[in-house]
Amino acid sequence: MAKDSSTALRNKSIYQVFPRQFSETHDLQGVINNLDRIKRLNVDYIYLLPIHPIGKVNRKGTYGSPYSIVDYYRINPDLGNLENFKILVRETHARGMGLILDIVFNHTAHDAAYTKTHPEWYFRKDGKFTNRVGDWWDIIDLNFENKELWEELLGVLRYWAELGIDGIRADVAPLIPLEFWMRARAELKKINPEFLMVAETVHLHFIKYLRDRGFSAHSDGEMFQAFDICYDYDIFDDFLAYFREGKSIEKWVEALLRQESIYPDNYVKLRFLENHDQERIGKYLKTPCQFRNLTALLFFQRGVQMVYNGQECGATKRPDLFELDPINWSGYNKAGIADLISKMNGLKKELGYLNGALEIEILTPHVLEFRYCMKEKSVIGLFNLAPEPQTVELKHGGRDLLSGRMIASGRQKLTEPLVFIN
Fold first, then answer.
1. 55 lies in the same domain as 67
2. pLDDT in tens, 375-391
3. End-to-end Cα distance, the chain
4. pTM higher than 0.90 for the full model?
């Protein structure tokens, strides 16, 4: 959150779309055809994975990674053309939503146009184009020591902003100089004062890995100077450890509360259960009830919530990044996940609780109570992370805003998530 970022952003949410895998047509038209369904989730922004042409040299898989880009100004012909994109922007806006584009400036494909026109813009080792992370063999890194490169990339941002996009998600943003992003923010705010900047900040161990090798990598605290929203990878592994390794949830709760003091008062984190880089959360869960509890819990984490396409089905298979691997929509809302996402989005907008004072209590090793305290009321959420019902002692009762049932204080068996006002 830059100094001028508003805490009202905490009432917003994002829906992430992988256009190749999202629909049966595998293109932008498929996204357009499903805008009404996305809108029913009560989300505010649609975020598209990169839509540009994909490199062929050293390509991973048959179709390649959308993060291995040949040309920042063009649209991958497999997805459509500029006219399709303009229609998508127009139709998204017509439904009261904004469009966020994935911006990948750390690297390009090996056969990007810049390798021919501006080879001096690339990072080299032993005289050859390369990257700083060996596993990413389908891409080569740009060298931001060259200020001509900055001007070119700022022009790319202006181009898409003038076409009507409402924000960017900056891929591995901490690997790019903070000064570049500060300039980008200033340029984009001239075009649209409400332009949203989301940084894919990175895991703490990755920052250390790069710094130990002599490369620059910014912390979340630094990135917040230029961006409105940063990913919560600084604590995400602590959350997953409960489900993957059976570790205590206490470490994650402590880390979540620590964010309240180490970041400025108007900080906004991007909260998610899954995304294109992470396994489906459903892979680690045993029951639909457990999935519903985690979905509701997501909307009690201070910040902007992001839902990855297919999550509303309770999907367990992550779409392949390099192949054609369309989402199976046959289970849409089967466990009530889509309805719950819509309901939780509505509640957080209506009640505005994510700007209250946060208290978290671990009632049992598997049950969390979140409480947001405001001037005249408190909004309380109770979440059972385990696949089995858990018995808890409730200090307060009230009408559950999710089911409409009255919940009494005292000893209760908790299965479904509960949300009520006290």
1. yes
2. 989 999 999 999 999 99
3. 30
4. yes
